[in-house]
Amino acid sequence: MKWIRTLLAIVTLALAFVLSVLAVRQPEVALNFVYWQTPFELSVFWWLLMAFVLGIVLGFLNLGWVATKHRLANRRLERTVAEQEAELTRLRGTTP
Predict the structure, then answer these.
(1) Rounded Cα gap, residues 67 and 11, in angstroms
(2) Whole-number Å distance between alpha carbons of 46 and 54
(3) Rounded CA gap, 6 and 58, in Å?
(4) Which of 14, 59, 93, 96 has the smallest count of CB within 10 Å of its CB?
(5) Calpha distance 49→20 (Å, rounded)
(6) 24: phi > 0 → left, psi -120 to 50 → alpha, else beta; which?
(7) Rounded to whole angstroms, how far apart are CA atoms 19 and 11?
(8) What is the model's pTM?
(9) Residue 42: partners with Cβ closer than 8 Å, 6 or more residues away
(10) What separation in angstroms does the CA of 45 have from each of 22, 26, 30, 36, 79?
(11) Residue 89, SS3 per DSSP
């Protein structure tokens, strides 16, 4: 399974490289946000690629955060179930 991820990462990087070679001839632009402008200019392709990569990174960070929260909640619930089962076993053993 891990080799599939590695292969997918390599293919994605190769595709990004090929697209960057094809996008060399685009005009360079600076981004404007309300009152602020980026101090440098890049082609539209690079701005879009950076936004795409940033979205992927933020998505993975969010996925890791949510998965960790669920994993910790699951451990807490498993511990509670084990305690309740032990209590049930104890009570069944003392009942005539």
Answers:
(1) 26
(2) 12
(3) 20
(4) 96
(5) 9
(6) alpha
(7) 12
(8) 0.58
(9) 28, 29
(10) 10, 8, 12, 21, 51
(11) helix
